[in-house]
Specification:
Blueprint lengths: L19 E5 L4 H13 L4 E6 L19 E5 L5 H9 L4 E4 L6 H6 L2 H20 L4 E7 L23 H20 L3 E6 L1 E3 L8 H10 L4 E4 L5 E6 H14 L4 E5 L3 E4 H11 L7 E4 L14 H7 L7 H14 L1 H9 L2 H9 L8
Parallel strand pairs: 1-2, 1-4, 2-3, 4-5, 5-6, 6-10, 7-9, 8-12
Antiparallel strand pairs: 9-11
Helix pairs in contact: 1-7, 2-4, 4-5, 6-8, 6-10
The structure holds nicotinamide-adenine-dinucleotide and 2'deoxy-thymidine-5'-diphospho-alpha-D-glucose (DAU).
Length: 358
Amino acid sequence: MRRKRDRGIQGTTERIDRMKILVTGGAGFIGSNFILYMLNKYRDYDIVNLDKLTYAGNPENLENAMNNKHYTFVKGDIADAGLVRGIMDKGIDAVVNFAAESHVDRSILEPASFIKTNILGTQVLLDIAREKHIARFVQISTDEVYGSLGSTGRFTETTPVQPNSPYSASKASADMVVLAYYRTFGMPVVITRTSNNYGPYQFPEKLLPLAITNIMEEKPVPIYGDGMYVRDWIFVTDNAEAIDMVLHSGKDGEVYNIGAGYESANLSLIKTVLRLMHKPESFITHVKDRPGHDRRYAMDPSKIMNELGWSPRTSIEHGLELTIDWYTANRKWWRRIKSGEYMTYYEKNYSVKGLRTH
Ligand code: NAD
Ligand code: DAU
């Protein structure tokens, strides 16, 4: 294996032309945006996308990459050690682990798959990455590991983790395992903790795509409880750029908070969406609250800004406009998801057999 710096890791000035990255969970929302961003930016990088294609994975998200000779898709589970070893045997320089069960409400209904994928799956990836001396392991984590804030203050990387949902507990556990592999084995790991992402290809179970698509269908927008729960919103491409910087220049064993600083209560965010879509506030319907609902998240991204030179490019208003435009132009994409047709669509239309196992 070549030395880390020869692989373009730690120090953008020393970046070389080629790198082979294993991206897991790349058929989901952030992973697919990240892959498209990377293939466009680094024309000679190779990307292998390992994705189980759960309900949240959609190969259609990567239609624009399918004919790119630098992109390979492998259907499978990150917890399948044999499969992961087979991929890493072919020479991987870095792993970026997006694969996860990601929806808080589902973790309240059925926690088991969250523990299995988010914790055990990460451990399998770590073990094989360690065995193969992979030069960089990027763990994609979340601000939710820090728990809930009061009306003031922001999460820094030294804020103690205090997760409240089965989802955030599984992500916090994975973070602890990742950091343990750095301290115990000296593995070259880095963790990104990001706030709420929004943008193209987000599955319409999450607040913003659910709201935008419901409004397009003239359906009500469900707001949990009083709607005064605050989230810190970041456009997905800004997150992709931050992850790229952490991948290349992040320091081993470090955590980097990523957030754009656009805090909003859910109610006012949805009012903004309704205004941008020229629809009345009567679409808003208050519904039963989420159990254990975290009141407020807010990120302090000073570390990644000061140490790696990252800053967000997309204002909330512009990001929302881009997102609404994308869902307007891609009605077929989300209608296939909402109807369930997407589960078989790709196989039927692209002659790819056996993509899904369930
Ligand atoms: P997503 O649910 O849209 O996508 C998850 C992807 O992982 C899907 O393609 C799914 O098929 C795949 N997957 C699930 N289990 C797998 C397994 N066992 N093996 C292989 N693939 C598997 O999620 P997302 O919103 O894109 O989030 C990606 C990552 O970013 C997650 O780790 C999540 O915790 C983290 N994150 C998300 C946000 C957000 O706002 N969406 C914010 C912070 C952090
Ligand atoms: O903060 C980062 C996290 O953001 C990620 O780690 C998670 O993977 C991602 O799913 C997201 O979690 P949230 O729970 O914050 O996202 P969600 O879109 O589910 O909800 C956003 C807020 O909107 C939250 O306060 C709950 C509320 N909500 C959500 C839905 C789906 C509603 O009021 N109504 C809804 O129908």
